Amino acid sequence: MPSTNAQDNVRARGGASGIWWYCNGQQIQAIPNATRPPQGAQHFKTFSMFFCSGYGFWVLRGDATNAASLASEAWHPLRFDYEENDYSTYITNAGSRRNLNWTRPDQRWPGILFPDIYHNPTMVTPNLQYGGLRGDLPIFLSLIAFSMRREVLAPMLPNMFINGAWNVHSHPSGRVDRRGVVVYVYTAPQNWAPNSTINELHRYEDGVYSNYYN
Question: pLDDT tens for residues 49-67?
């Protein structure tokens, strides 16, 4: 289980650490020389994730390197809720399910993002209307980060989201025992993207426009 002492949770240098990214709805790019969110951005959510080999992911709402977050929030195992309209999986820190909802043999994202303990071999179907992934955006982005080694994350991240769609990759997994990831999500400033609002991010998480993966 991850530590509840912020001093034990150290931010590692290198990789994608300290880089602020901008998504315009079509692609992701690093913001040059940014040390904080751009002026006018609104905080949406922050989550921390921690990987324990043989157990899986732990999730904390907030920044695990911040003592205030650890004092007000608790670590929870990664959990899921099931969406009944399209049989997709909703990723969260407070769900009622331990395994992914229905998936298909043609989908690569389940194996890329999740270790075997989250898979249910009795819930695999060739039916194309089944399967998909949505849920808390910082958790999803953390899973993307864990899916590859930290040294390739920064150059690979722009390739993971092209023309408004999430892609898969063939890199080795970055799920290393006791590795942690912290993700902050903000809206874009209104002069960058007028439609980037808290409400729109909630709608994106809920799959109103599309799932992260189908």
Answer: 999 999 999 999 999 998 8
- Between β-strands 161-162 and 43-52, what pairing exists: parallel, antiparallel or unpaired? unpaired
Residue 49: which of 111, 138, 170 has the closest Cα? Answer: 138
The rounded distance, in Å, linking the Cα atoms of 6 and 125 is 43
Rounded to the nearest angstrom, the gap between the alpha carbon of residue 171 and the centroid of all alpha carbons in its chain is 17
Could you give the CA distance from residue 113 to residue 166 in angstroms, rounded to a whole number? 12
Q: Among candidates 71, 51, 72, 73, which has minimal Cα distance to 60?
A: 73
Predicted TM-score (pTM) of this structure: 0.95
* Segments in the chain below pLDDT 50: none
